[in-house]
Every structure is written in structure tokens, then in C-alpha cells.
Write a structure and sequence with these properties.
Radius of gyration: 12 Å
Order of helices and strands: HHHHH
Largest sheet: none
Distance between the termini: 21 Å
Shape: globular
Number of helices: 5
Number of strands: 0
Strand content: under 5%
Helix content: 40-55%
Length: about 100
């Protein structure tokens, strides 16, 4: 997988931007985790989910990858329902 599997054509501008940011992280593993989740869930996300996803995308890849691989505990503020949904997504290989 080298990028999004969905077309952004029918997405609103906010979702298009989030889809792009999810697939262009800097660490390929995070592209696959966040981009794959965005492909599957972005169109159905409500405004609260979109707000949380935007905040997550501001977090560094190095921190996120450690949280997703259980190398570091997830800080309480970041341990949201959305984070747990992403962590449970089929693309995530549980450590």
C-alpha cells in the first residue's frame, strides 16, 4: 500500500485535508496506521471525531508509534475513544 485507497473527490475540504495529512506523516508506519484508518473511517466521522483526529495529527510520529506499539503508555489526555478505535483497527498489529 503506497497511499490512500479512496478518492477525496466527494469529501468536504476539512476531510480532504485530514486525509492528506494522515497519509503524509513522515514515518511510513504512521502513514499506514493513520492513513489506513482515515480511508476506512473519515467519511463517517462526526465533528467531535474530526476535532480529535486533528489534534492527534499534531502529535509527533515518534510519540504515536510508541503508543500504538505499546512501547510507551498512552498519556491520559491522549487515551481517547478515537485513539482506542485506531489502535483496534485491523491495520494495527498488536505487539
Amino acid at each position: 500500500m503506497t497511499g490512500s485507497t479512496i478518492s477525496s473527490e466527494k469529501l468536504d475540504p476539512r476531510r480532504r485535508k485530514l486525509l492528506f495529512r494522515a497519509w503524509h506523516r513522515g514515518i511510513k508506519e504512521m502513514d499506514l496506521i493513520l492513513g489506513g484508518f482515515a480511508d476506512a473511517q473519515l467519511a463517517a466521522m462526526n465533528d467531535g471525531d474530526l476535532d480529535e483526529f486533528e489534534l492527534m495529527l499534531e502529535t509527533s510520529d515518534r510519540e504515536l508509534i510508541k503508543w500504538f506499539t505499546n512501547e510507551m503508555p498512552v498519556p491520559e489526555a491522549a487515551d481517547t475513544a478515537l485513539f482506542r478505535r485506531i489502535a483496534a483497527h485491523p491495520l494495527i498489529l498488536q505487539a
